[in-house]
Design brief:
Length: about 475
C-alpha cells in the first residue's frame, strides 16, 4: 500500500512499482508531498533534489503512452476514463540525487492508470573497453602476482570511472561494462562448477588467410552444473550502491551456454546425455540468478547470444532448426516469465560477434524474426544493424505491439564516428515497418566482448564519442 505520510523537504522517497490501482491513487497526491514514487527502478531509495518537471518542457526523450508498451489493462478503467487518463498523465522526469549526492534524471510514464517502466530510447549492449590498468591487474592476478582483493580494487576503479562517464553523457540506463569478467559469457562459468578448468585455444582464420590462436571463453561442460555462488551478485551490489541511475546486467542465454558447452567426448554422457539435458540445468541457474537480480534492484536484465545460431542452422536444415528454436525459446521463456513484470525490463541481444575478423551469423533476420519476436516473452530485442549482411528493416513488420527493437546502428568495431543525420534517416526507414515508439538506438554490439587486448577494435575516446552520439540522437528522435 502507498504510505500516506508526507515528509518535509528534502523528501526521502522509495522508488518502487505498484499495482495500477496503487499508482492511480498515488498520481492524485500533490506532487510536492508525494511520499513515494511508483516507478522503476525498484528497491532504490533516492533523495528528491528538485521538483519534477514535465518532459514536454525540455528536450528529454518522451515515453510511449499509446498502450504499445503495456500488455494488460487494469480492471477498473472504463473507456472514457482511459481517454481522460491518457491525456492527463504525461511522461515526467524526476531529478534525483543518489546516495553520493550526484544528480541524475530518470523517467516515469503513467499509462492506463498504472506507472510503467521506462522505455530506454538509448541503450548499451553491455561490454565497454577495459582500461589498460584493469587488463594489467587481471594479468597479474592470473600470474599470482596480486591477490583477489587487489583485482577487485582495480575492477571497482574501472567501474566507477565508466559510471561517471555514462552519467556525463546522460545515459538512461547504466552498465558496469562487464569489467569483472574475462569475457561477456564468463559470468556464468566463473560462478558454476562442472566445467573444464581452462579456456580452450582455437585456431581462427583471418580474412587475409592467416590464422591466429584465440583464447575462447566458453568452457566445455564436464560434470553436473551447479552454481557455487551468485553469477552477477557482486556486479549488482556495486551498481546498486554506485550507479547514478537504473542499471542493467547482462548474462549469456541458457541456450548459448548449452550449445557452447555441450561437447561430445568431454561432457559426461551419464550426466548430460544430450544438449537438452544440459539446457535444463543452465536454464534453472539463469532463472534463479534473474530472480536474485530483481531482488537486488536491477532494473534491466539482458540475455545474450541465444539465437544467432538458428539463423545459420535454418539455411541448412529448416525442420531441425525449427525444432531447436522451439526448445531454446521455451528455455528462455522460463527465465523471462520468472521476472516479467513492470519492475524489470528483460531483453535479448541477437549477436553477430564483436570481433572484426570472425563475425558470424550472416544472413537476414526474417526467418528468426517471424518466430522469435512473437514467441519470446521479453520486452526488447537488441539487433545488430551495422552492415548490409543482416538485410533491411523488413523483419520489423513481425514485431508485435508492446515490444521494442533496439537498433544496433552504431558500429562498435569501426572507429569512424557515424553521422547523426544518417542514423536518423535509418531510424526513419525502420519506422516504416513498425511504430517509432517501438524502436530505440544502441551500438551493434558490446565494445570489448573479451577482456583481452585483441578484443578491442577502437580506442577509448572513440567509444565514448559513439555512446554520446547514441544518447544525443535518441534524444533528438524521441524528444
Ligand atoms: Zn553482439
Amino acid at each position: 500500500m502507498v504510505s500516506q505520510s508526507a515528509e518535509e523537504n528534502p523528501i526521502e522517497i522509495k522508488v518502487r512499482v505498484g499495482t495500477p490501482r496503487e499508482a492511480s491513487a498515488a498520481s492524485r497526491l500533490p506532487r510536492q508531498t508525494a511520499p513515494e514514487i511508483l516507478c522503476a527502478p525498484p528497491h532504490r531509495t533516492h533523495r528528491l533534489a528538485s521538483t519534477p518537471r514535465e518532459a514536454s518542457t525540455d528536450n528529454t526523450p518522451g515515453l510511449d503512452l499509446t498502450g504499445a508498451a503495456s500488455t494488460s489493462e487494469p480492471d477498473d478503467v472504463s473507456g472514457t476514463d482511459k481517454g481522460q487518463r491518457a491525456k492527463k498523465l504525461q511522461p515526467t522526469q524526476w531529478l534525483y540525487s543518489n546516495q553520493n549526492g550526484t544528480p541524475f534524471y530518470t523517467e516515469c510514464a503513467s499509462q492506463k492508470g498504472g506507472i510503467v517502466k521506462p522505455v530506454y530510447r538509448s541503450d548499451q549492449v553491455g561490454s565497454l573497453l577495459r582500461p589498460p590498468q584493469l587488463l594489467d591487474a587481471r594479468d597479474a592476478f592470473k600470474a599470482g602476482k596480486i591477490d583477489r582483493v587487489a583485482l577487485r580494487r582495480a575492477e571497482d576503479a574501472a567501474v566507477t570511472d565508466v559510471l561517471a562517464r555514462q552519467q556525463r553523457i546522460a545515459v538512461p540506463i547504466f552498465t558496469d561494462g562487464e569489467m569483472r569478467r574475462d569475457a561477456w559469457q564468463t559470468v556464468f562459468s566463473q560462478a558454476v562448477e562442472g566445467f573444464v578448468d581452462q579456456y580452450p585455444l582455437t585456431d581462427i582464420a583471418r580474412p587475409d588467410g592467416t590464422t591466429v590462436k584465440v583464447q575462447m571463453h566458453t568452457k566445455a561442460a564436464r560434470g553436473k552444473l551447479r552454481a557455487v555462488g551468485r553469477l552477477a551478485g557482486t556486479d549488482a551490489a556495486f551498481l546498486r550502491e554506485h550507479a547514478p541511475g537504473p542499471f542493467k546486467i547482462t548474462m549469456p542465454s541458457p541456450a548459448y551456454v548449452a550449445r557452447g558447452s555441450f561437447r561430445p567426448g568431454i561432457t559426461d554422457s551419464a550426466v548430460y546425455p544430450d544438449r537438452e539435458a544440459l539446457l535444463r540445468d543452465a536454464t534453472d541457474i539463469v532463472r534463479k540468478e534473474m530472480l536474485a537480480l530483481v531482488e537486488d534492484g536491477c532494473s534491466y536484465i539482458q540475455l545474450d547470444e541465444g539465437f544467432t545460431h538458428h539463423l545459420t542452422a535454418a539455411s541448412k536444415d529448416a525442420a531441425a532448426a525449427e525444432k531447436d528454436l522451439a526448445v531454446d525459446i521455451a528455455a528462455e521463456n522460463a527465465c523471462h516469465d520468472a521476472v516479467r513484470s513492470d519492475e524489470v525490463t528483460v531483453a535479448v541481444h541477437v549477436c553477430r560477434g564483436s570481433r572484426v575478423a570472425w563475425s558470424h551469423g550472416p544472413g537476414k533476420y526474417d526467418w528468426l524474426a517471424e518466430r522469435l519476436f512473437d514467441a519470446l516473452h521479453c520486452n526488447r530485442f537488441l539487433l545488430e544493424y551495422d552492415t548490409d549482411i543482416v538485410g533491411g528493416f523488413e523483419p520489423l513488420r513481425f514485431l508485435p505491439k508492446g515490444k521494442v527493437v533496439v537498433l544496433g546502428l552504431v558500429s562498435s568495431k569501426e572507429p569512424r564516428l557515424e553521422s547523426g543525420d544518417q542514423l536518423k534517416r535509418r531510424i526513419d526507414e525502420a519506422a516504416k515497418y513498425c511504430s517509432l515508439d517501438q524502436l530505440a538506438l544502441t551500438s551493434q554490439c558490446g565494445f570489448q566482448g573479451a577482456a583481452q587486448r585483441d578484443g578491442a577494435h577502437i580506442d577509448y575516446d572513440s567509444q565514448w564519442r559513439k555512446l554520446e552520439l547514441i544518447v544525443e540522437t535518441a534524444r533528438d528522435v524521441w524528444r
